[in-house]
Automatic annotation (TrEMBL):
Pfam families: YozE_SAM_like. HAMAP family: UPF0346. SUPFAM superfamilies: YozE-like (SSF140652). Residues 4-69 form the YozE SAM-like domain. It comes from Listeria fleischmannii 1991. The lineage of its organism: Bacteria, Bacillati, Bacillota, Bacilli, Bacillales. NCBIfam families: PRK13672.1. It comes from the Bacteria. Belongs to the UPF0346 family. This is UPF0346 protein X560_0158.
């Protein structure tokens, strides 16, 4: 049934780039409480809104989650 959002997000990790998507991925990697198996938007957004001071607004998450859903749909 496809990969989790976290595994999708990890494709954006990069030690050199510093755009918002890369910063989010790098910070989520260091967040040991991140819901790594979650695929549900509401579970992820609730977690991020309450526990992710490293995310400056939800727009980056929303954009990445849309990309994740498109990627999952393409790989079905």
């Amino acid at each position: 049934m496809g990969r989790s959002f976290y595994h999708f997000l990890m494709t954006y990790r990069d030690p050199v780039k510093h755009d918002s998507k890369t910063n989010f991925a790098n910070a989520a990697y260091k967040d040991h409480s991140f819901p790594k198996q979650a695929k549900n938007y509401h579970i992820l957004s609730d977690y991020l809104e309450l526990n992710a001071p490293y995310l400056n607004g939800m727009a980056t998450f929303d954009e990445l989650f849309d990309e994740y859903m498109l990627d999952e749909e393409k790989n079905r």
